[in-house]
Design goal:
The chain is of the alpha/beta class. 30% of the residues lie in helices and 24% in strands. Helix 4 crosses helix 6, helix 6 packs parallel to helix 7 and helix 7 packs parallel to helix 9.
Length: 420
């Protein structure tokens, strides 16, 4: 099938250009103004913008094992509806992908049901229990990297062993950094809101302390190392210093950490995630980190749960929110339209930088597979979780008015999403 995308502004080499795009058999074959339409399905995207497909290196699609929360199909459809053409799925599943046999079950579902590129992580340890290395070598050809996301690797010796193995396989270690001994039953940030409302807090040290350990180990081993969902100002500073020292380290933060803080909390499960929303100075440090290159990319940590699991308030609800369908409009509305970031900076954080770090395709170029998304930046609407493609509904942004509606996502020879 041939697709001709006409009259849009296209993000090419960090600039918006008035041009058309012709896609044939899943490949971009021409980028020029006034392309002929013979033999092509034509889409006139006047006043719309075409971006390289977004890349999210941190999502939870819950299958196999927890398909009542999400499936590969619904998760990938949600990603496509948010403008994503590639996502990396975390391994806290059942079975945990800690061997070739266990990974195969997930790969088979991806091949059958995914509407975009879905690349899994293998676990660092068997069952994510932190006691024995997974079969990293056996999985290495089929995974994007290794992570025990959802749990921090508590043992320094185990993490060093994992880093050495990953280094030998030329794979990245992607770490959920959380020191269990410092949690003390906490479930929101140990800040003003927790103190005023009688909640148990999670201290920032539980995040930055294991990052401090891991960047030291990464320096010693030479492994490529990536930190998940950075939320605390101290974490940003640890990573900044590590980069200055020459450590091969990158990190991500989530949309919610960039636009919310614990003063915005409500007594509802849709405001509960791990790590938690922290203080305003943490949010400001993350924005500064993005501007100076310490924070490399934005990832959603899309983590759907059932309605019942998210209906128990801040105290007892499961941790995690959905984010694939709200990430771009929230960040465009709250950061780009307010002048905190340029449009190019946002797209770079959501596409080029994660793709480059994880060895995935980015950009729109002749000869490359078509991985692109179309947005109407002028359309204003209210975020309604009941209209999501994901099975999850928990978002702190429900009811927010935003700009930027995804109109189409093309992934190879498929139209992965088209707005109604």
């Amino acid at each position: 099938m041939n697709y001709l995308l006409k009259n849009a502004k296209v993000m090419l080499n960090h600039r918006l250009s008035d041009t058309d795009i012709l896609v044939s058999d899943g490949v971009v074959v021409s980028i020029a103004k006034g392309l002929p339409s013979e033999g092509a399905l034509v889409f006139d995207f006047n006043n719309h913008v075409i971006f390289p497909g977004f890349v999210d290196v941190h999502v939870h699609f819950r299958e196999p094992g927890f398909s009542y929360k999400e499936t590969i199909r619904t998760g990938s459809e949600s990603a496509a509806a948010g403008g994503y053409t590639a996502v990396c799925t975390m391994p806290n599943l059942n079975p945990v992908p800690d061997s070739r046999e266990h990974l195969r079950e997930q790969l088979d579902i991806i091949e059958r049901d995914a509407v975009i590129n879905v690349i899994p992580y293998g676990s660092i340890t068997v069952g994510e229990h932190g006691e024995e290395l997974s079969d990293m070598e056996g999985m290495s050809k089929d995974v994007i990297g290794f992570s025990d996301d959802g749990r921090g690797v508590q043992s320094e010796a185990m993490m060093k062993e994992a880093m050495l193995k990953a280094k030998s396989l030329r794979k990245i270690i992607v770490a959920h950094c959380e020191e269990n001994s410092l949690l003390k039953g906490g479930y929101i940030h140990d800040g003003e809101y927790a103190r005023q409302n009688g909640h148990k807090g999670i201290c920032s040290q539980s995040e930055w302390q294991p990052i401090e350990r891991d960047v030291r180990l990464a320096y010693e081993t030479g492994v490529s190392y990536h930190v998940c969902h950075v939320s605390a100002k101290e974490s940003v500073e640890v990573i900044r210093k590590a980069k200055a020292r020459g450590v091969d380290v990158t990190c991500e933060t989530g949309p919610h950490y960039l636009v919310l803080d614990d003063s915005k909390l409500r007594e509802e499960g849709r405001f509960k995630m791990n790590p938690p929303l922290r203080a305003s100075e943490d949010r400001e440090a993350l924005l500064k980190g993005i501007k100076d290159g310490t924070v490399d990319m934005i990832a959603t940590d899309h983590a759907p749960h059932s309605k019942e699991e998210k209906s128990r308030g801040l105290t007892k609800s499961a941790m995690g929110i959905v984010g694939l369908e709200t990430a771009f409009p929230i960040l465009y509305t709250k950061l780009v339209k307010t002048g905190e970031l340029t449009l190019d900076e946002l797209v770079t954080l959501m596409s080029e930088k994660p793709a480059k770090r994880f060895g995935l395709q980015s950009g729109i170029e002749v000869g490359k597979k078509a991985q692109l998304t179309v947005f109407d930046l002028e359309e204003e609407y209210e975020i309604d979780p009941e209209k999501f493609k994901t099975m999850g509904r928990a978002t702190p942004f429900a009811g927010e008015k935003v700009f930027g509606r995804c109109k189409m996502t093309i992934c190879g020879d498929k139209i992965a999403y088209k707005s109604e």
